[in-house]
């Protein structure tokens, strides 16, 4: 197991880190004093608010804006991080959007948007930072997927397809990077109490909770704890796995 520096001195990049699960992940890593990079697209003030919370732990924190659908912007983001001496040892591909509706009503534009943010963005961000990890013979790539990428969901065909692609990407890349002591895993949560749930009516949320054996939605902090665990040096033999914290909803 190779490791270039103590865990708490490593740097983590969280895409889509300005809210929800991403914000919780940023806080979890900051709580042990790690260097944290919070990526966002347009939510400048929200990202800064998360950054202020992380700084309370004494962490070095940087916010960066980039459209992860654009290779040019990803390269510019990497150059900015290089200038700041904050190239990530851990990349958490968390940025994503969902879509709810019948497949027959899905436009080509919606399909392209969901695929680009969830899948292409994961590819571009990962590709940009792999060379640094290979050079160090150490790294962690953790993709935030979804339970629907495993089981599929009616009226969420596009989102399920994108997350299913992310899961396949995870398994294949894990095999490719294992010789370089780089792990690649995906966390595929069930229903989580974030803004994504706002698309559902209260009655629908109640019905959904009744389907879950645990009887509730996950907290973002619970997902963040699993992401943190997978990033630990002692988790170096776990790779190519799709782990679904879902309260017993899917077993």
TrEMBL record:
Protein name per the record: 3-oxoacyl-[acyl-carrier protein] reductase
Entry-linked Pfam families: adh_short_C2 (PF13561)
Enzyme class: oxidoreductase
UniProt-listed Enzyme Commission number(s): 1.1.1.100
Domain of life: Bacteria
A GO MF label: 3-oxoacyl-[acyl-carrier-protein] reductase (NADPH) activity
Family affiliation: Belongs to the short-chain dehydrogenases/reductases (SDR) family.
Organism lineage string: Bacteria, Bacillati, Bacillota, Bacilli, Bacillales
Sorted UniProt keywords: Oxidoreductase
């Amino acid at each position: 197991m190779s490791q270039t520096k103590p865990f708490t001195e490593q740097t983590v990049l969280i895409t889509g880190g300005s809210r929800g699960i991403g914000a919780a992940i940023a806080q979890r890593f900051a709580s042990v004093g790690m260097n944290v990079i919070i990526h966002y697209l347009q939510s400048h003030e929200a990202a800064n608010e998360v950054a202020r919370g992380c700084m309370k732990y004494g962490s070095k924190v940087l916010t960066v804006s980039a459209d992860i659908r654009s290779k040019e912007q990803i390269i510019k983001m990497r150059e900015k991080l290089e200038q700041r001496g904050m190239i990530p040892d851990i990349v958490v591909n968390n940025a994503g959007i969902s879509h709810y509706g019948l497949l027959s009503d899905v436009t080509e534009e919606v399909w392209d948007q969901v695929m680009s943010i969830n899948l292409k963005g994961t590819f571009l961000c990962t590709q940009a930072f792999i060379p640094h990890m290979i050079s160090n013979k150490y790294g962690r790539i953790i993709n935030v997927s979804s339970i629907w990428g495993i089981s599929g969901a009616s009226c969420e065909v596009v989102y399920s397809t994108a997350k299913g692609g992310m899961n396949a990407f995870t398994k294949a890349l894990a095999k490719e990077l294992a010789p370089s002591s780089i792990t690649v895993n995906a966390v595929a949560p069930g229903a989580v109490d974030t803004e994504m749930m706002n698309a559902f009516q209260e009655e629908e949320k109640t019905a959904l909770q009744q389907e879950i054996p645990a009887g509730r939605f996950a907290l973002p902090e619970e997902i963040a704890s699993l992401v943190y665990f997978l990033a630990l040096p002692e988790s170096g033999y776990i790779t190519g796995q799709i782990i679904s914290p879902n309260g017993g909803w899917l077993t």
